[in-house]
Amino acid sequence: MQTKEYKGYEVGPIRPPSEAYSLLIRLVRGCAWNRCKFCGFYRGVPFGIRSPEHVKQDIDEFKAWIDVFEGKAEKNIETEADYEAYYMASNWYQSGMESVFFQDANSLLMKPEYMVDILEHLRKTFPQISRITTYARSDTIARIPDEFLTRYAQLGLNRFHIGLETGNDELLRLVNKGVDKKTQILAGQKAMGAGIEVSEFYMPGLGGKEYAFQSACDTADVMNQINPDFIRIRSMALSEKLDLYEDYEKGTFTRTNDLDDLREIRSFLERLEGINSVVESDHILNILLELRGTLPEDKERMLATIDRFLALPEEEQILFRLGRRIGVMGELSDLQHGPRRQQVERVLKANAVDSSNIDAISSRLMVKAIPI
Fold first, then answer.
1. In 167-257, which ranges are continuous DSSP H helix?
2. Strand 99-103 to strand 23-26: parallel, antiparallel, or no bridges (unpaired)?
3. CATH number corresponding to 17-314
4. CA–CA gap between residue 34 and residue 36 (Å, rounded)
5. Which of 45, 58, 108, 311 shows the smallest number of beta carbons within 10 Å?
6. Helix (H, G, I), strand (E, B) or coil at 174
7. How far is CA 217 from CA 186, 252, 271, in A?
8. What's the chain's Rg over C-alpha atoms?
9. What global pTM score does this model have?
10. DSSP string, 330-351
11. Domain extent listing, the chain
């Protein structure tokens, strides 16, 4: 196979919060679809599939640095790519070298035979790896023959992070997701049938107030039919740079606030039935980080947590919302944590935060928290 010159290790822009300690290996650049109105991570990034040989050279680079850390070899940093590889390998080495994440948006676009080649090389180089994961689009999973999905699982590619966002077909069309509810269900079932863990992302607030309830209902229906290993809540942040911002400005959607999103999440959780998924609220944009647990046993506790927040006096809700958005609070118990409460109260007073401006302030801080 003819390939261009290898120019060293390269890393993509993002990874899921749960992959913070994973080794990042880039198989594709950017996003082949890149038309979702709510996502701006890959705008301006030309899509491309990397050479399998270059990916394997990245893996070899990591092995060389691990050998250095273990005192088996010496190696110098000569280029920026060398530094990136050193930094990534160092973090991975210190974290125990257990997990790997394939970048960018949808590495499953790599030809199946090339993916198998990369996985075999990775397993041979680092046999101790316990988890290999990737972002994956439902329409791509649905097209991959079952025998290749099974082979991926056998070689350790054992978790797909899927941006479900919503199960409502009308909303999927409006935000230009490029997939429908039926395909989402098929993809999740195919992956799990092959022995691959499925982590589905749900985005409350995506459809504004107009679609909140129906999105919650339809998304719960998708989850109930898949029974994914993980359900991850990832609230919507509306940046002016997003295509979706124009739809909000022209009135297609009415913008939601933290309370609206929690009501939507409550409707969603309430309708999850007959599954044993783990619910996670581990994203920086989420208002309540304690909305986590295993279904069905933790369902009532999670619903009660939402009800407890919604029953708070307005001034306490405002205090917590501000505390969450400046990174001081994450769980309702933080309202009783003296130093944290006092810190937020000082910020609230200094900036005259009240019911008239908390929505705008919260939205602005959410956008600042992510690189859109």
1. 169-174, 181-193, 208-226, 243-249
2. parallel
3. 3.20.20.70
4. 6
5. 311
6. helix
7. 18, 20, 7
8. 22
9. 0.94
10. -SGGGGG-HHHHHHHHHHHHHT
11. 17-314, 315-372
CA atoms within 13 A of residue 226's CA, in its CB half-sphere: 35
Q: Three-state DSSP class for 66?
A: helix
Contact, 310 vs 264, CB < 8 A? no
227: left (phi over 0), alpha (psi -120 to 50) or beta: left
Among residues 144, 156, 138, 159, the alpha carbon closest in space to that of 113 is found at 144
Q: What tokens were used for 265? A: 């999440």
Distance (Å, whole) CA 320 – CA 335: 7
- Tokens standing for 16? 């899921």
CB-CB contact of 184 with 137 (8 Å): no
The whole-angstrom distance between residue 299's C-alpha and the CA centroid of its chain comes to 22
CA dihedral of residues 320, 323, 327, 332 (deg, nearest 10): -30
Please spell the DSSP secondary structure of 270-297, one letter per residue: HT--S--PEEE--STT-S-TT--EETTT
pLDDT in tens, 253-289: 999 999 999 999 999 999 999 999 999 999 999 999 9
For 343, other C-beta atoms within 10 Å of its C-beta total 15
User: Which of the 8 DSSP states describes residue 17?
Assistant: G
Check the CA dihedral 350-356-361-364 and report its sign: negative
Catalogue the E-assigned strands of the chain: 23-26, 28-29, 48-49, 99-103, 131-136, 157-165, 197-202, 230-233, 278-280, 293-294
Give per-residue pLDDT as tens, 315-345. 999 999 999 999 999 999 999 999 999 999 9
Return the SS3 of 43: coil
Long-range Cβ pairs for the range 308-311 (8 Å, 24+): 308/332, 309/262, 310/259, 310/262, 310/263
Separation of CA 88 from chain center:
20
Instruction: Decide: 352 and 360 in contact? Cβ < 8 Å.
Output: no
The CA dihedral of 81, 83, 87, 90, to the nearest 10 degrees, is 110
Segments in the chain below pLDDT 70: 1-3, 371-372
9 with 87: CB under 8 angstroms? Answer: no
Helix (H, G, I), strand (E, B) or coil at 2: coil
Note if the bond before 145 is cis, omega within 30 degrees: no
